[in-house]
Amino acid sequence: MILVLRALGVGDLATAVPALRGLRAGFPGRELVLAAPAWLAPLADLVGVVDRVLPTDGLADRPSWMVPPPEVAVNLHGQGPLSHRMLAATRPGVLFAFANPDAGHAAGPAWDNDEHEVRRWCRLLHWYGLPADPADLALRRPPEVGVPAGATVLHPGSKIHAKRWPAERFAALARALTDRGHRVVLTGTADERDLAGRVARAAGLPPDAVLAGRTGLADLAALVADARLVVSGDTGVAHLATGYGTASVVLFGPVPPARWGPPVDRPRHRVLGPTLAAIGVDEVLAAVDEAVRVSGAVAA
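RESULT FIELD:
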């Protein structure tokens, strides 16, 4: 068994796709177990190489995992020490992780805080002699689940409030896109449903345009996979757009796109930033026009 720790969120899992595929290529025939929150299981299925998800919410000094000692434990969660110790407690044959002497793991490459998240985990695997292609970000298409195809998806929320573009600007953007013939829908978590509702009302959108809190993760993936366009902050939906090659405009700040942005050689994904407050609606509309033009996306 190969045990991989990545107990984080949607964007975190999406950026680990190349590393997970590298592990599958490096250890064919082994069971690949991903320790991650149970709600991420639908996305793990779309990666195409994970055999099962071991439900794990965050880190613990003494994990309650009932698993035999893995052949290899892989820390795709962080630089330690707690995540290192969590995996070491399973008594693996070998631990693949960044060097952290405080966790008793002096081997492995040095951590680079400014490195892009995708390349970080590929570099870790390269250190241990395994393949990993940072460009291998494509996700499997989910089954048809009845979500609208060809919609323009606006995602105004983020669990980190500093990453949220102002709601009134999302509303102005939604009005302008609707006037241009886009079928706009608003996504988000159940906790963001009120925010999405405020944006919809200010934009003059009907109540059924608010999908926040009404879509599971598989539904959201299907919506993004068949969308005309995605506009969001630096959050999980942006990484789904990258995984499906859906035209997108990603609004960055305060974290720079050099660490979490889409590949720079894919012009259908446009990046604006690095200061959210400085990004105006007209600037986003211009980026939308360019992303749609490059992708050849058509109206719903």
